[in-house]
Amino acid sequence: MKTSFRLKAFISIISVVFLFFISSIKIYADEYIPVKGIDINTKSMTLWVGESRYVGAKVLPDNAGNSGITYSSTDTNVAIVEPSGNVIAVGEGNCNIKAYTNEGNYSDYCNVIVLDNGPKNLPVTAINIKEKNPVIEAGDMIKLNAIISPSNTSNTSVSWESSYPMTAIVTGNGTVTGISPGYAIITCTSLYDTRIKNSIVVTVTKANPYKNYINAAKNINTNTNDKYNPTHSTALNFMTISQIMMAAPNSKVIVEQETPMSYDASVAAMLVNRPDISLACRFKMNGVKFELTLPAGFNLASRLDKTGYIDWINLCTDKTLELKIVN
After folding, report:
1. Domains in the chain, please, with CATH?
2. What residues pair up with 190 in beta bridges, in sequence order?
3. Could you tell me which of 57, 88, 51 has the C-alpha nearest to residue 70?
4. More confident position, 100 or 7
5. Which pLDDT belongs to residue 49?
6. Overall average pLDDT of the 30-41 stretch
């Protein structure tokens, strides 16, 4: 009787242990989630040679038991891919970056286009403005030019702003227009990174009321009345030479005539001997009297043409010389 009871008890214990073992296996089996697929959320990308970017691949479902992924490139001459999914552009062309699940061999891909025929999408590091603190008259315009660093970046878009539009305004392409005398700070800002900017000071001066006349004098072409007259010029040159010879040290010689004058080699030579004086020639054009001043030490001889003369237009167009209207 006791033996039978012990046997039954033993069998009962074994049964409980066996059932517990079986149930444990079932619970473990229910917890493991098999891989059902893979997804790359970046289906295509365009890179410049040397650039890199990650492809975002993930195993499906999110709670799959095996999340391992292997990457490969269909053309390593175009782009290579690291085990982490970082794609590096190598050469111009087109290829696919494929991602495979380690379980089930599910796959997805990203199309990669690599370009090498233009600037690169590099971050902007600095902005400089080519023009340094220019001075313009009210009503005048000047085009400012932004220099972006590095020079091979494609992120060249900028904005322009004036601190005081009542003095100077600036357009989106960097053209500044003087409005009234004063100062304005013109700022150029990178649209790639608005923390990167540069500024210059633009000075606006009062407009010259005779500016249109002076510009006309600089741009007018010779006509019959303004052409070189040998007889007139000979007498004028003789008078000019005499004035230069007798001029006081460091003085200014003024020569007046009714039409634009021409100089010959004798006047040029005399000026070389008197580098201490300046020569102002006054002439009329269209009823307006102009004065063109050659400063002391001006090398007039270097402006002689093959015939030994210099036409007044050549001198009037020289921006280093002072041309103004006189009464």
Report:
1. 37-115 (2.60.40.1080), 126-205 (2.60.40.1080), 211-325 (no CATH)
2. 158
3. 57
4. 100
5. 82
6. 86
